[in-house]
Design brief:
The structure holds 2 protein chains of 2 kinds. Chain A is an alpha/beta fold. Chain A has 13 helices and 9 strands. Chain B is about 50% helix and about 15% strand.
């Protein structure tokens, strides 16, 4: 029953979101699932890839399908923190300052091309991600619940980018790469209508209370000692092996576990299996791991190496 | 000019560590040695540290040579020799410093570390207390850590933990072997190496003269004089008179031990209430021993003088334990030869005239000695004060000054003036010094007698009764005799306010516990001689031991212990036995591997199942069942006993090949 559970889950609202999103983003079911797992684990999502592979489309589709109030912030090099958080403006008739909330006051924030903005603007957003609140003009304001940031960014070597520092990358639970579509999906894409035109027609498959109930169920997914052994072995390997510049932090280990629980739940399981950990591991640790030495491999490759290097205890 | 090689080969942190260890081990010596030795050592270590830290050049060879010669010459000038405990240790410390200065290869570092181990041992020549033992253990630990740091090989210098933790583990593993060696190593009669002559300097104890003011220093001292273990009940305080030197000769101020004192047999016309006990006397460097009045037996190598003072053939240089029987109710010395009688009545008539006049006046008024004694005690009781800080007696007639003017003093004053009064009244008398009272350790029922319990009393000779003990101090301060000096004076030796605050008795309990521990340490560690060893081993069932059998035992047990420790270390690293479900799963994987479907180490059970089903659809249902049970056992809710048996059975029946 643990194994064959997935077939019986067709009516699962999460499956519904996946199938609808797949109609917009062709051939990327796995990435869509990972993105959903990230949201169910209450983590922020970073999508990184070259322009034109559908980063923004994916994030917009997710926002619409989850039925949440969303705002999009296009990050540019002259974006100021006030543009994100909001400003107080003097109103003549009442002779008072009134706060005009910025786009950050939404349930889903689509932060487009986050690494094109200056570090100052970046940190305004990242602070909100960490604290779930913003401070404007000396007053602290809570952000709505649920609150997610789906940020997109171009690869670091593109012109005109300010790379996110590691401490801020750490605030994203997952980093996804979309990659080019395969031949079949690309053909369909070329034949079909403009994908962005489909977006407004998407109806929410789920609403906010449902989403929050699913999120609350994630930590209930069972984790056995044997599985904890596996997660610890993975983390310990990154700390001991000379192949990595720096080992994974305890927070990273916790992130792996939480994401694996969300993934297991999406598979219709009540227990986490090593396969769940393996499924989410590259997305969760890819942006936290750096290879060491001259033949250093990038984050995703380093994470893939980690999977084959560590035996399941 | 040849000796200028930069110290690139030695790691500066390692050298610093070694220098620190050297300072640590020599530190206790610095207080004992002349100041210039400590200054020289610290200076040399600082120099070497500077050379290492700033990567300076080493001193020229001729500088080192001159310093070495100067150090040796200084040692000789200080002590007049180069051997013996103090001179030898000093020389060793100075040469160790020079070794550090010229040390520039790894081999020399190793040598310096071993020198450090020898230096650890030298501390033992000066102090054998428990705190020193702990300190020396810490020294050994630090030196082993230094060694670990050096053997770690090249690369990054070791951190403090990387040195101390392995060193601590090594020591802990060596501990069983250490115990075996300690217990079984053949002992020789007498110490393995005799302590050099100068080790005896500065030991405290009673003296063979008594001048009022002499014992006041002792009374303040908390140092243990001896410990007594009674066989049975401890007698009441007023019986606890431990006899030491007996002073006959009187010169108008001081009382001295007489040189002439023939040995005597311990035979008494009356000897009742025997008490059996064992004394453990701290070394005091003198010949006399202590015993409860009156001693009935003699320990080996000890004789009794006719005044019942015990004398050992050799001075008491090491802690001495002996067993005694004494009689509390006794009569002795009924016959007093004329020579002794004359000696016990002698005094200078031109000194202390008022005291002599008083004694003579009492005798004239009533010649019965008992009456005279009674009057004297009454006299003390009526007007005198017991104090440890009496005024100085500076005149030529000190007893006149004490009896008629100052009237304040402690046991010496009372005993001295009482004996003089008796002699003036024609009653033979003498002073007995020793210890009175003590403290009972409630933890082990041991009586601890401290230097503070030192006491002096008087023996008078009465016709028909012999020598009778009279303690004039008890007439002045009965508490001193009934319950010990602490009761007479209030607490001493410890800060009084601390004792006063110690209402719950925590401090005194701690003190008792510490004393009991020290007693065990003395008896079983320091006093573990050939007799104790034989006694202990006999109790273990190892009998009739000459040193050859002992050596065989030693080798055998050492090998056994080392073997056990190694076995344990090996066994600890062996993988623990897997739970049943994991064993079944492994067997399942092995069977499939023989069929060409080995599981990759990182392959999860579901992925493996998918691969197996794809490759061998015929195995499908069985594989699903086994995998499902395994997943449930390992990652799910666990298996019930029947389910576990079912899994094992399925795996046994599984035939992929």
């Amino acid at each position: 029953m643990l194994i064959e559970a997935r077939a019986r889950l067709a009516a699962n609202p999460v499956e519904d979101v996946v199938s609808r999103a797949s109609r917009v983003i062709l051939g990327k079911e796995r990435q869509i699932r990972l993105a959903l797992a990230c949201i169910l684990a209450r983590g922020h999502l970073l999508i990184e890839d070259v322009p034109g592979v559908g980063k923004t489309t994916l994030s917009q589709a997710l926002a619409r399908l989850l039925g949440l109030h969303y705002q999009r912030i296009q990050f540019t090099s002259d974006l100021l923190p006030a543009d994100i958080i909001g400003v107080s403006i003097f109103e003549r008739e009442s002779s008072t300052f009134r706060f005009h909330p910025g786009p950050i006051f939404a349930q889903i924030i689509l932060a487009d091309e986050i690494n094109r903005a200056s570090p100052k603007a970046q940190s305004a957003l990242l602070e909100a991600m960490e604290e779930h609140q913003v401070t404007a003009e000396g007053e602290t304001r809570a952000l709505p619940e649920p609150f997610f940031v789906i940020a997109t960014q171009n690869p670091q070597n593109q012109v005109g980018t300010f790379p996110l520092p590691e401490s801020q990358l750490d605030r994203f639970l997952m980093r996804l790469q979309l990659g080019y579509p395969d031949a079949k999906a690309e053909r369909e894409l070329l034949r079909g209508e403009e994908r962005r035109d489909i977006l407004p027609t998407l109806e929410p498959a789920i609403d906010a209370p449902q989403l929050m109930a699913l999120q609350a169920a994630v930590p209930q997914v069972g984790v056995s000692d044997a599985l904890l052994d596996y997660v610890q072995a993975l983390v310990a390997h990154t700390r001991q092996s000379p192949k990595y510049a720096q080992g994974l932090s305890p927070r990273a280990g916790l992130a792996v576990l939480r994401a694996a629980q969300a993934w297991a739940m999406m598979q219709g399981r009540t227990q986490v299996l090593p396969e769940d950990v393996q499924a989410i591991l590259p997305a969760v640790v890819g942006h936290r791991l750096h290879g060491a030495g001259e033949s250093a491999r990038g984050g995703f490759d380093a994470a893939a190496d980690l999977l084959t290097a560590v035996a399941i205890p | 000019m040849s000796a200028a090689i930069p110290n690139a080969a030695l790691d500066a942190r390692g050298v610093m560590w070694l220098l620190g260890a050297m300072l640590f081990v020599v530190a206790p010596h610095l207080a004992r040695m002349p100041e210039w030795v400590g200054a020289f050592f610290v200076l040399m270590v600082a120099w070497r540290g500077w050379v290492a830290w700033r990567a300076r050049h080493f001193p020229m060879r001729w500088v080192v040579f001159l310093l070495t010669v100067a150090a040796a010459a200084g040692t000789f000038l200080q002590y007049g020799r180069l051997f013996g405990r103090d001179a030898g240790t000093t020389l060793l410390i100075l040469m160790a410093a020079m070794k550090l200065v010229e040390m520039r290869t790894s081999r020399e570092v190793l040598l310096a570390i071993h020198l450090g181990f020898v230096l650890v041992m030298t501390n033992f020549l000066y102090s054998q207390t428990i705190p020193m033992g702990i300190y020396m253990l810490a020294c050994v630990w630090i030196f082993v850590a230094t060694l670990v740091g050096y053997q770690r090989g090249m690369g990054r210098p070791a951190t403090v933990a990387e040195r101390l933790v392995p060193a601590g583990k090594l020591l802990a593993q060596a501990l069983p072997l250490m115990v075996v060696l300690f217990v079984l190593f053949p002992r020789v009669t007498g110490p393995l190496w005799a302590l050099p002559q100068d080790a005896r300097a500065g030991l405290s104890g009673l003296s063979d003269t008594m001048t009022p003011g002499n014992i006041s220093k002792l009374i303040q001292s908390e140092a243990t004089a001896f410990r007594v273990e009674f066989d049975g009940d401890i007698p009441a305080y007023q019986w606890l008179y431990f006899r030491g030197p007996v002073l006959w000769a009187f010169d108008g101020r001081s009382w001295r031990m007489s040189e002439f004192s023939p040995a005597a047999a311990l035979e008494y016309p009356k000897a009742e209430r025997p008490v059996k006990y064992a004394m453990t006397v701290e070394p005091h460097g003198k010949h006399w021993l202590f015993a409860l009045d009156v001693p009935g037996t003699l320990p080996p190598g000890v004789s009794a003088r006719h005044d019942l003072q015990l004398r050992s053939v050799r001075p008491v240089d090491a802690r001495l334990r002996y067993e005694m029987t004494s009689y509390l109710d006794y009569r002795f010395g009924e016959k007093l030869p004329a020579g002794f009688r004359e000696f016990a009545l002698r005094f200078n008539t031109w000194q202390n005239p008022r005291t002599i006049a008083l004694g003579r006046q009492w005798a004239a008024e009533n010649p019965d000695p008992r009456r005279v004694i009674g009057r004297a005690l009454q006299y003390f009781n009526s007007q005198f004060t017991y104090t440890l800080e009496p005024p100085l007696l500076e005149s030529d007639d000190p007893y006149d000054e004490f009896l008629f003017d100052k009237k304040r003093g402690f046991c010496e004053h009372y005993a001295g003036s009482f004996a003089l009064l008796m002699r003036a009244a024609g009653i033979p008398s003498r002073i007995v010094t020793g210890y009175q009272g003590g403290e009972i350790n409630p933890l082990n029922r041991e009586l601890i007698v401290r230097q503070a319990d030192a006491h002096a009393w008087v023996e008078v000779w009465l016709e028909g009764e012999g020598w009778v003990r009279v303690d004039p101090t008890s007439a002045v301060s009965p508490n001193r005799i009934d319950s010990g000096i602490n009761a007479a004076l209030g607490p001493i030796g410890v800060i009084p306010s601390l004792i006063a605050a110690d209402r719950l008795g925590i401090l005194s309990n701690l003190r008792f516990a510490w004393d009991a521990l020290n007693s065990q340490w003395n008896q079983w560690v320091l006093g573990y001689n050939i007799d104790r060893q034989r006694q202990f081993l006999t109790r273990l069932g190892i009998d009739a031991l000459d040193w050859m059998t002992l050596a065989l035992w030693l080798a055998g047990v050492s090998f056994a212990v080392a073997g056990l420790v190694s076995l344990w270390l090996v066994a600890r690293d062996l993988p623990r036995r897997d739970p049943p479900a994991v064993r079944a799963w492994k067997r399942y994987g092995e069977k499939l591997a023989r069929a060409g479907l080995a599981r990759a180490p990182h392959e999860g059970p579901l992925d493996y199942l998918a691969r197996v089903r794809a490759a061998r659809p015929d195995l499908g249902p069985e594989a699903v069942a086994i995998t499902e049970r395994y997943v449930q056992a390992r990652y799910g809710t666990g298996l019930t006993a029947p389910e576990a048996r079912e899994l094992a059975q399925r795996v046994r029946d599984f035939r992929p090949a």
